[in-house]
Input
Amino acid sequence: MGWSARNGIYCLNLKMLKNKKSEILEEEIIYIILTVVFFSLLAFFLLRSNPSSENVAKQIVLVIDASKPETKIVLNADKLVEMAEEKKIARESIVRIEGNQVVVRLSDKNEGKYSFFTRAEVKTYFEGNNLVVEVK
Output
C-alpha cells in the first residue's frame, strides 16, 4: 500500500498513498458516470417505446380467448387512437378481425396479426376512444 521501510522502521509514504487514493477515486468517478449514462439511456428507450402492433393484437386475443360467448368487452384505447391519428390511420383500420385473426395497424408500414382459438363470432368497433370487442 503506502508503507515503506527505513532503517527497520515502517513509515507511511503519504505521496504513494495520495496517488493510490486519487487512482481509486478516478476509477470510482468513471464507474459512476458510466453507470448513470447507461441507466439514463435505458430509461430513455423504455419510456420512449410505444406498444407494437403485434403486442396489442396479442393482448386483444388473450381477452377474446378468455371470454365466454355473448360477452361485450370495452377496452380503453386512448393511446392506440392517438398513435394511429399521428400516422393518419382511420379508426376502422386500427383493429379489425380477419377470420380467426386480430389485425392491429398502428402505422402504414406494418400490421400486427395474432390468431385466436375461440370458435365464436368476434366483432370489433370503436365507441369514442374505447375499443368494443363482442364475442357472440
Observations:
- The chain has a mean pLDDT of 83.
- Residues 77 and 130 are 5 Å apart (CA to CA).
- The radius of gyration is 30 Å.
- Helices lie at 14-48, 53-66, 78-86, 91-94.
